[in-house]
Amino acid sequence: MFIHAFEGSWFDHPFWTKHFCVETAEQLLRIRGSAIDGLVIDQSRSRVTTSEAVSPPQFTRPTAVEEVAPPFRRAQVAFGLPSTPPRDELRRKPGYNSECRRARRLIDKSRDAVIDMFDTARLGRAVEARRMVPLARSIGDSIERDTKALVNLVRLKEKDEYTYVHSVAVCALMMNFGRHLGLDEPVVQDLGVAGLLHDLGKVAIADDILNKNGSLSEGELHSVRGHPLAGHALLENSQGVPEAALEVCLRHHEKLDGGGYPGGLRREALSLFARMGAICDVYDAVTSNRPYKAAWAPCEALTEMQGWTGHFDVPLLDRFADSLGIFPIGTLVRLSSGELGIVMGSGGEAWEDVMVRVFFDCETLAECDPFDRAVAPSAENPRIVGRDSPTFWRFPDWDMMRWRVMAAEVAA
Ligand SMILES: [Fe+2]
Questions:
Q1: How many whole angstroms from 392 Cα to the centroid of ligand 1?
Q2: I need a labelling partner for 79 at 20 to 30 A (CA). Which of 112, 254, 322, 331 fits?
Q3: Is residue 90 one of the residues assigned to a domain?
């Protein structure tokens, strides 16, 4: 059966996505073992009827495509986008592929160093934070040569290496974000070290809890929620740990509305580094394949994260999206070709492309017939220059215009 939605909080179920087809008995068991109150089945996309699948039927069936599809499916199905639109690689960025090869080696090396550091901490010895500095510098160099090579590659994680590669990913995201915000290079390097160290406290969590597929008991949750404090204590006992790393380690699970942990601190009490850490940590988690969750595609992840009221600093989340050149669905963007388009979602085999619906020519100041482009990370021209302002272009009713363009029929 195809699940359209879970009823209850995102935290009540063990899946990254709310929309997927239940294919295995194990998935069904995990749903039954979760804390959700109910779920919504899209019968039109299911291969069995609800009466075959569950008894008694306690689910409702949405009626329209617009109601049943997640944003990117809505873009693809309801608005007629081909599932794999032509990739826009008229001119490819030189060196992208060679940077991918270098980045792959660097990710492996960094992962091994993080594993070593975790092993040291498990043995109760002080970790050598200074060993992380040259790694952060190399990761910073890689993303300076090409932001997207390492950032795209690091989303791919094997089950048993998740925590370690996640640390490498957060390091890269933090450094890229810090540079985009114009922070000084020594601060950027410290943020890289912070990314590598931020989850060190997970050494205090038992492996069976850390890798558990289903929902956690109260006691298990307590153990997981102890990792920022545990990590902070380990780092305080180590030499040469930057202040930024101590801060990010302790505060990366805080939320702006005070609903996070360990301190339940609110907006004004949370530093820039803490707010950056929360964004980078969650973005990498939801865009990574996990044993119990399918990954969200990047544009869809940012769209969802934007909707988590009270969790993130929203203007800062916008700057984070800008730093990656990946935008929530519905964002107005300008292309280097002098055209405006609307982000329709992610595309490509590994969801590394941004799908843009082009509809406006900035030179003639006129609308054109909408058409779709998949802008690959290696594309140099046209590439996405950045988000743009509907007010600047004096679009009289942007919401209506956006709806019209996104709903337009386009040639496949
Ligand atoms: Fe964490």
A1: 40
A2: 322
A3: no
> 235 and 155 in one domain?
yes
In a domain, 243, yes or no: yes
User: Mean pLDDT over residues 26-31, rounded?
Assistant: 72
153 and 282 inside one domain? yes
Beta bridge partners of 266: 257
Query: Cα of 135 to ligand 1 centre, how many Å?
Result: 20
Ligand 1: distance of its center to the CA of 41 in Å?
Answer: 32
Find the 20 Cα to ligand 1 centroid distance in Å. 26
Domain that holds residue 212: 95-323
Give residue 404's identity as a one-letter amino acid code.
Answer: R
Region 259-263: mean pLDDT is 96
Among residues 68, 103, 119, the one where a domain terminates is 68
Q: How far apart are the CA of 58 and the centre of ligand 1, in A?
A: 36
18 pLDDT higher than 90: no
User: DSSP assignment of 120-136, as one string?
Assistant: HHHTTPPP-GGGHHHHH
Is residue 64 predicted with pLDDT exceeding 90? no
| 0.90 surpassed by pTM | no
Q: Is residue 87 part of a domain?
A: no
Is the pLDDT assigned to residue 255 strictly greater than 90?
yes
In this structure, the answer to whether residues 269 and 168 fall within a common structural domain is yes
pLDDT band per the 50, 70, 90 thresholds, residue 78: very low
Radius of gyration of the chain (CA): 22
Distances from the Cα of 151 to the Cαs of 111, 146, 157, in angstroms? Answer: 14, 9, 12
Cα(221) to centroid(ligand 1), Å: 13
Same domain membership, residue 222 and residue 292:
yes
Tell me how far the alpha carbon of residue 255 lies from the centroid of ligand 1, in angstroms. Answer: 13
pLDDT in tens, 83-100: 445 555 455 666 788 888
Beta pairing partners, 41? 3
**Residues 304 and 400 placed together within one structural domain of the fold:** no
Tell me if 373 is assigned to some domain: yes
- Give yes or no: residues 111 and 62 share one domain: no
The Å distance, Cα 146 to ligand 1 centre, comes to 27
Residues 156 and 219 occupy one common structural domain: yes
